[in-house]
């Protein structure tokens, strides 16, 4: 019988599944933070995003088990196609940040100097860090809860909800005030729309994970900007700002808080929206 909790087939409604997942993930995240905090002062920054990722992976596994579904069904089919999309996404995310940086440079916002003492090992550590961040955040923001909400209210509405959620989730980051708050919120929201499109066009989380990884690694480990307000990982190159306003360069927050990023990210969204993609039929329904 159809009720507020179950549909006409006797299954728990998608909205309740989303709320259940979010509640479980919140509890797991609190537990993970306690465990990680117990390791201080010997905590390792590279480990933190992977521990956070477990807080999102475990509830996902539990929800999938209850539904008798699989990881492949939500975009984790680990085959050659998945790895290819991961690599293409990393190139695309890096290209977005590279194009943004070139625009800032062309407008006299900054130039770069080589960072002393930074080499291949540092770049590899940055890749490990940002891969953990990408896996954790895409599992949470484009994984099970996003996809179940898409079933419930449709893809466009779910995009708006989770783009707002994603942007709001960064409000506690350093530097989120004044003009930076506006530009960073706008661009992080645009990035969420881009990542959601990457999922719906491929039916896989590989492309959004790759874009997220390439975006952060290029911005931070390669070009030396802050990444969403964090500056813990020095880049191969260091930007030298030339006194231009933060809305042009992003300032200490990173390129994500700049007008050029909004322009480049907007163009990428249009390109993905126009691309027909190659998602399996069930992923697009």
Q: Kindly report the oligomeric state of this protein.
A: single chain
List low-confidence stretches. Answer: none
Work out the strand percent.
under 5%
Please state the average pLDDT score: 90
* SS content category: mainly alpha
Total number of helices? 11
Give the strand line-up of the largest sheet. Answer: 1-2
Task: Offer a few descriptive terms.
11 helices; globular; 285 residues
What is the topology?
Blueprint (H helix, E strand, L loop, with lengths): L13 H25 L9 H20 L12 H27 L3 E5 L5 H22 L2 H10 L1 H14 L9 H25 L3 H17 L14 E5 L4 H4 L9 H16 L6 H4 L1
Antiparallel strand pairs: 1-2
Helix pairs in contact: 1-2, 1-5, 2-4, 3-8, 3-10, 4-8, 5-6, 6-7, 7-8, 7-10
Describe this structure in words.
It is built from eleven helices and two strands. The protein has 285 residues and is mainly alpha-helical. It has one domain (78-284). Strands 1-2 form a two-stranded antiparallel sheet. It is globular, with a radius of gyration of 19 Å.
